[in-house]
Amino acid sequence: MTLNRYAKRRDANHNEIVAALRQAGCDVEDEDISICDALAGRAGQTFMLEFKLPGYTDSDLKPRQKRLRSTWRGHYAIVSTIEEALRAVGL
Questions:
Q1: Can you give the pTM of this predicted structure?
Q2: What is the largest CA-CA distance in the chain?
Q3: I want to staple 52 with a disulfide (CB 3.0 to 4.6 A). Which of 18, 44, 56, 91 is the partner?
Q4: How far, in Å, CA of 35 to CA of 1, rounded?
Q5: The predicted structure's pLDDT at residue 8
Q6: What is the residue-wise DSSP string for 7-44?
Q7: Average confidence (pLDDT) over 10-28
């Protein structure tokens, strides 16, 4: 049996946030991505999104997620609701 090195647990809100982004007209890639939960494309821009359940705290973030949040010069957002995700992509 071969394990997918990208396999990871998805938060319960993952699918609904992805569906809402697509409904709003974004392209969303959420398979085989190791750096974040999803890449969303809109208006010629790419947005890196990390999904967390509502009420998450810094202690719920992995060291890599904390590092990206504080040092990444491109777009990276940690979102826990549809509204936060839409805001993160400029909608």
A1: 0.86
A2: 42
A3: 56
A4: 24
A5: 67
A6: --PPPTTHHHHHHHHHHTT-EEE-SS-SSSSEEEEETT
A7: 96
| pLDDT for residue 68 is more than 50 | yes
Domain extent at residue 43? 14-88
On whether residue 75 sits in a domain, the answer given is yes
8 A C-beta contact, residue 77 and residue 48: yes
**pLDDT at 2 > cutoff 60:** no
CA dist., res. 40 & res. 45, Å (int):
8
Written as six digits, the tokens of 16 are: 């609904």
Q: Are 29 and 56 in contact (CB under 8 A)?
A: no
Query: pLDDT value at position 65?
Result: 92
2 part of a folded domain: no
5 assigned to some structural domain: no
Rounded to whole angstroms, how far apart are CA atoms 74 and 66?
15
pLDDT at position 5 is: 46
